C-alpha cells in the first residue's frame, strides 16, 4: 500500500459522508478520488461492521485505511489486511448481561468480520415496538443476524462490540453504570437509522475512533495536516486527534465547541464544503 504525502483526511461514515440511504453519493466519491490523486491519504472509521462499510463505500476505487466497530478492528483496504484489533472477552459480555437485568429491551453482540460479521441477538427480549426497527437494521447491515437464547457462543470467546438499543431515558441510567467500569469503553450516540432510539457502543477500553486514527498515524507515518470529520459523540475522540476538526450540522449539543469548521449536513453533501473550508483554515492557521 502506497501512502500519500499531502496530508490525511479521517472521517466517520454514517451521517458524515452518507445520507439517509447510507451510501456515499457519487459527487462525494468523485471529490475524494480527486483529493487522493492530489496526494491526500484517507482514513474512515465507523461504529458499524465491515459488511456495512463495504455497502457504504463501493464507489471508492483507491486504497484507504478503515476502522470498523468503533475502532475495534483496523484494516488496510481493499486487501482487508489486519492492522490491529482490540476485542472484548466473553467475561465482559456476561458482565453487561448482569447489569442489564431488569432493563426493558436487550443488546446485540457482534462477531467481527473474520467470523462473518454475525450479529447475535435474543429476539424474545425486545419489546414489540422494537421488532420493526430490528427488521430494518437487519436489512441495512449487510451481515447475517443469528437468533440465540444466550451469548455463550461455543466457537467464540472474544467480540469487537456490544450495542445496547433503546429510548434515551432508558439508556442514560445504564450508560452511567458502564462509565464506572475501567475494563471497557462506552459511548452513547443517536441511532442514525431510527431517528427515535439511541445506542450505547461498548468496546474494549483501547478501542475508540481516536485511538484508531492514532494507531494509523503512528504505524504508517501519516502526514499532517490531519483533517478529521464527524457528527456524533463517538466521533469526538477522532476529532480530538485532528489538526483541523469538521463537525456536521445537526451534531449533538457541545460538539460544535470542538469544531474549526461547521459543515452542512451529510444529506446536502456538506463534507465537500467542510473539507474545502478545512484546507483553507489550515493554510491560514496551521503550523
TrEMBL record:
Gene3D superfamilies with a match to the protein in the record: 3.30.1240.10, HAD superfamily/HAD-like (3.40.50.1000)
Protein known as: Uncharacterized protein
Native organism: Candidatus Neptunichlamydia vexilliferae
Amino acid at each position: 500500500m502506497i501512502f500519500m504525502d499531502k496530508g490525511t483526511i479521517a472521517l466517520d461514515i454514517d451521517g458524515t459522508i452518507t445520507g439517509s440511504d447510507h451510501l456515499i453519493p457519487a459527487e462525494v466519491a468523485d471529490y475524494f478520488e480527486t483529493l487522493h490523486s492530489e496526494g491526500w491519504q484517507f482514513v474512515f472509521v465507523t461504529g458499524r461492521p465491515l459488511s456495512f462499510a463495504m455497502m457504504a463505500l463501493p464507489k471508492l476505487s483507491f486504497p484507504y485505511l478503515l476502522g470498523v466497530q468503533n475502532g475495534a478492528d483496523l484494516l488496510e483496504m481493499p486487501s482487508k489486511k489486519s492492522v490491529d484489533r482490540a476485542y472484548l472477552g466473553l467475561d465482559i459480555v456476561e458482565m453487561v448481561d448482569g447489569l442489564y437485568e431488569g432493563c426493558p429491551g436487550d443488546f446485540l453482540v457482534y462477531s467481527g468480520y473474520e467470523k462473518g460479521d454475525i450479529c447475535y441477538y435474543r429476539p424474545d427480549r425486545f419489546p414489540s415496538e422494537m421488532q420493526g426497527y430490528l427488521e430494518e437494521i437487519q436489512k441495512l447491515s449487510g451481515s447475517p443476524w443469528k437468533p440465540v437464547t444466550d451469548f455463550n457462543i461455543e466457537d467464540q470467546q472474544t467480540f469487537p462490540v456490544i450495542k445496547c438499543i433503546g429510548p434515551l431515558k432508558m439508556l442514560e441510567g445504564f450508560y452511567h453504570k458502564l462509565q464506572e467500569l475501567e475494563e471497557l469503553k462506552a459511548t452513547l450516540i443517536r441511532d442514525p437509522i431510527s431517528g427515535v432510539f439511541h445506542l450505547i457502543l461498548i468496546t474494549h477500553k483501547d478501542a475508540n475512533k481516536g485511538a484508531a486514527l492514532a494507531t494509523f498515524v503512528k504505524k504508517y507515518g501519516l502526514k499532517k495536516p490531519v483533517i478529521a470529520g464527524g457528527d456524533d459523540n463517538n466521533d469526538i475522540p477522532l476529532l480530538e486527534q485532528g489538526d483541523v476538526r469538521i463537525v456536521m450540522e445537526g451534531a449533538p449539543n457541545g460538539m460544535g465547541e470542538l469544531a474549526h469548521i461547521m459543515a452542512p449536513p451529510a444529506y446536502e453533501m456538506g463534507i465537500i464544503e467542510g473539507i474545502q473550508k478545512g484546507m483553507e483554515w489550515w493554510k491560514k492557521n496551521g503550523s
